[in-house]
């Protein structure tokens, strides 16, 4: 599984701190996060701190949507193979009248 690490090296002051929970700072952090979603996917090269763009992958938002779908599909697959879950689901189903 590939993770989607994302770093914004332009943050400074209270924007770079998760310890400042004022409403103003939280609003700024939300806007920063929304901006990061719109940026193209990049991965940090270990040892260099460089973040080359990855072509034909889309934005961070696109990558997160694909990742969420992958997790959802994996959960459904595991649930379909789990006898314990199948038994629990069948016993809670209501039959039509």
UniProtKB/TrEMBL annotation:
Source species, domain of life: Eukaryota
Record GO terms (molecular function): monoacylglycerol lipase activity; phospholipase activity
Biased composition (Polar residues): 1-19, 87-97
Signal sequence extent: none
Region (Disordered): 1-23, 76-97
Gene3D superfamilies: Cytosolic phospholipase A2 catalytic domain
The protein, known as: Uncharacterized protein
Organism of derivation: Escallonia rubra
């Amino acid at each position: 599984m590939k993770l989607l690490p994302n770093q914004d090296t332009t943050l400074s002051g209270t924007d770079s701190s998760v310890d400042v929970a004022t409403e103003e700072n939280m609003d700024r952090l939300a806007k920063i996060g929304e901006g990061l979603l719109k940026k193209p996917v990049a991965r940090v090269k270990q040892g260099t701190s460089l973040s080359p763009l990855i072509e034909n992958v889309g934005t961070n938002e696109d990558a997160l949507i694909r990742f969420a779908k992958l997790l959802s599909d994996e959960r459904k697959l595991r649930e379909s193979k789990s006898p314990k879950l199948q038994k629990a689901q069948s016993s809670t189903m209501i039959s039509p009248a």
